[in-house]
Design a protein that fits this description.
By secondary structure, the chain is mostly beta strands. It has one helix at residues 61-72; strands at residues 2-7, 28-35, 42-49, 78-81, 88-89, 94-95, 97-99, 108-114, 117-131, 137-140, 160-161, 175-191, 197-210, 212-213. The protein folds into two domains: 2-49, no CATH class; 61-213, Immunoglobulin-like, CATH 2.60.40. Strands 8, 9, 10, 12 and 13 form a five-stranded antiparallel beta sheet that branches. A three-stranded antiparallel beta sheet has the order 1-2-3, with no helix packed on it.
Length: 219
């Protein structure tokens, strides 16, 4: 129920509002309108108050946008390559790519409403930063390109890294890889204040550990 109070005036047809035996100096009579969210109807009544009612809180669209984003349950990258169950080789290009879904890459759309204001937000990953564990950092602006056997030992055209040292010296004999996605969220007011818009940014991470070995050459 949405309740709104405003100062009441003398009613139509000469009917005076009920002051309950009080005089204007004691306070004021206010008109109370109750609007039910699941019904187009409303109830209007008059109420005497000694002090003015508090002003209605202003709804901040940015707060609603954040509420919409929270409902999306955005997650870190769903890494397709590298795989913790595989074994990479030094000096062989490693292709980096991720699976795409609404919660791990986008686009993801949600809305939130309060106080007659509605906001629509759309989130999408704008970049993924890969920390490879050997000191290298790779920034990719897309999901990466899936590897196929037909490309052989070629570098990835979009997102990749080549290790030059095995992971034998690392804890557990594996490099720790961290993929951090940056979500860019565009929002706009769809009701109750058209024209207002903005942008939010959030990050999510996924980590895994991968082994890297030397290529063994048999004579």
């Amino acid at each position: 129920m949405d309740v709104h109070l405003q100062a009441a005036r003398t009613a139509a047809a000469g009917r005076t509002l009920d002051w309950e035996g009080r005089t204007p100096g004691d306070g004021a009579v206010y008109e109370q309108t109750c609007r039910y969210l699941d019904s187009p109807n409303s109830v209007v009544r008059h109420q005497w108050l000694a002090d003015p009612p508090p002003a209605a809180a202003t709804v901040d669209p940015a707060v609603l946008a954040q509420r919409a984003v929270d409902s999306m349950k955005l997650a870190g990258p769903h890494i397709a390559s590298p795989r913790p169950t595989g074994k990479g080789l030094v000096r062989i290009p490693m292709w980096l790519w991720v699976h795409q879904s609404p919660t791990t890459y986008g686009p993801n759309t949600a809305s939130a409403s309060a106080g007659g204001v509605s906001v629509m937000a759309t989130a999408k990953v704008s970049k993924i930063v890969w920390t490879m564990g050997d000191g290298a950092v790779v920034t990719c602006t897309g999901p990466g390109t899936p590897y196929t056997a037909a490309v052989g030992k070629s570098d990835s055209p979009t997102c990749g890294h080549t290790y030059t040292r095995t992971s034998a010296h690392q804890t557990g004999g594996r490099y720790q890889v961290t993929a951090t996605s940056t979500w860019t969220i565009d929002w706009q007011v769809s009701a109750g204040g058209a024209g207002q818009a903005g942008q939010l940014t959030e990050t999510r991470q996924t980590q895994l550990r991968i082994p890297l070995a030397e290529l063994q050459v048999l004579n």
